[in-house]
Amino acid sequence: MEGDKCGVRITPPVLEFYDAEVDTVHQLNVTVKNTSKTSKSIRYYGPKTKYFQLKVRNPNKPVAPGLCVPAVVEFEIKEEKEVTDRLVVTVDGDVIEIPLVAYPPQPLLEIEQVVNFGNLVANSKTVSHEISLVNHGSKAGDFKIKYSGDKPIAIMPSSGSVPPKSVQMIKVEYVTKQAGVFEEVVKVKLEGKETKNLVIKGTLVDRTLEVLAMNTHQPVECVRFGSTYYGSDKTECALLFNNGPEPVNFVAVLDEDAVAQEMGVDLSKSTVDALADQDRDGIEKPQGTTNVLTSLITAIPNQGTLKPYEKIPVFFRFSPRWNASKEGWKGQKKPPPRKDFALFMRIQIVGSSTGFSSKSPTKYADGSFVEVALTGTALPVLLSVLPSLKYDFGECPIGEHADVLCTIKNESSDLATTFQFRRVAHFSTHPPSGKIPANQSQDVIFSFSPKQIVRCMMYGFGDDRNPYTESVDILEDLVIDYITEMTKKAMEVGRPGRISVEDIIFLIRKDPKKYSRVKELLMMSEELRKARKAFDEIKYATATK
């Protein structure tokens, strides 16, 4: 252990008087302990200089093991300066020196020697970092910081005085202009110490927003939707990548003033043909407009926050719509024309220095936005039904069916068409749905089945317009069974081989609900007969005049 010598332990091994003020007596205690197993003769001898005074009672007898001899050393001076001396202790004739040091009041300054900004984005913004300059001494200390390099570094304050037992915060600012690694050395002069080096370092990287392909993770410059029908949607997925060490807020907007933008033209025609169609007066053109730009192409999500180096899926949706004109003769229903679109969407970092109206080059030198081209074609659905759009099945007995064959042709040369027939009571189709390739046809059989009259009855009594087939079949079986049973009973009570209305009334005479319903229907039938007769008489009289 430090201070153990010659079988004794000296505590403390060095006597240091800190902040020794002028004309003031300062005292420190010192002890010499016998740590051996035998008695020791221990004596103190005073310092050489007049500034230190020893106060002790030296023992006349040897000191037993485990006991100690205490002493007090006093220091007093008339002027501020550092003084050194020694205190002598003898142990059984062996001499031990105890150093004595007195320090006048002085500053004791310490400063952090490295400022590490880490990874930063080269976006011409000012970043700052604070370090502490601590004065542990009892006297104010001066400091001076000087930077002689050419980097955009500012240090505040660069000079000053730090009060005793206090902390001065030093602010270091750096302007993030150019990407790369920087490490600069700043000279720091502290009072009472040699000049130190303050190292300022960091790494500047370019921040970029990127749109990447889902499969290859390669940059995407154009999203091609291809062809789609009016009234349908086409969606393409990509990845939005924040290639930077800071989180960013983004928003997606359509660039309405982009160069090479095309809005609703037919690019399948040559320029001469397109201009000729515009100037030709005899051609009847479809009247209407497409939907507004903001709903034609959308990005989902169109705004949000990206963490450093985060990738999120973004969906681009192409939704062409045709709004036919409703004003007079303009409202004639004509197939909408083919229209090709080439638009540009800008995904912009919110709060960037360029802003939304900046005309930056396509390579986006500051990485504040990424621009994606989006192309798509809107096509009308062109279906023809042959041989006619109207079919007359004529008379068909209940329980049987009549069929008609027709052909549906997809007259589009670019896209396939899916079709599906809605269910209608008494009618069915085969196939009920399907897909017709471009420029192909599909044969469809229309069937009329009057056995489904029960469906109308069910709808009339509050069921769904198109009830389940199983429900119709069950109810039809019940109706047929009831009619069969009533017919057999009526043949037994009436004239053999004949059924009359009176026979039916006789059978239900004890059921008030059925009886009143039959009477109501008979009265209604009689009123309808009289009304038809009167109408026929008026029609005949008008014709003979």
Whole-number radius of gyration? Answer: 52 Å
Number of helices: 6
Question: What's the CATH superfamily of the largest domain, by name?
Answer: Immunoglobulins
CATH architecture of the largest domain: Sandwich
Shape: elongated
Q: Indicate the proportion of strand residues.
A: 35-45%
Question: Can you tell me about this structure?
Answer:
- With 545 residues, this protein is of the alpha+beta class.
- It folds into four domains: 4-102, Immunoglobulins (Immunoglobulin-like); 109-205, Immunoglobulin-like (Sandwich); 209-272 and 287-379, Immunoglobulin-like (Sandwich), CATH 2.60.40; 383-460, Sandwich (Immunoglobulin-like).
- 16% of the residues lie in helices and 42% in strands.
- Strands 20, 22, 23, 26, 29 and 30 form a six-stranded mixed sheet that branches.
- A hairpin with a 2-residue loop joins strand 8 and strand 9 (94-102).
- Residues 354-365 have low confidence and may be disordered.
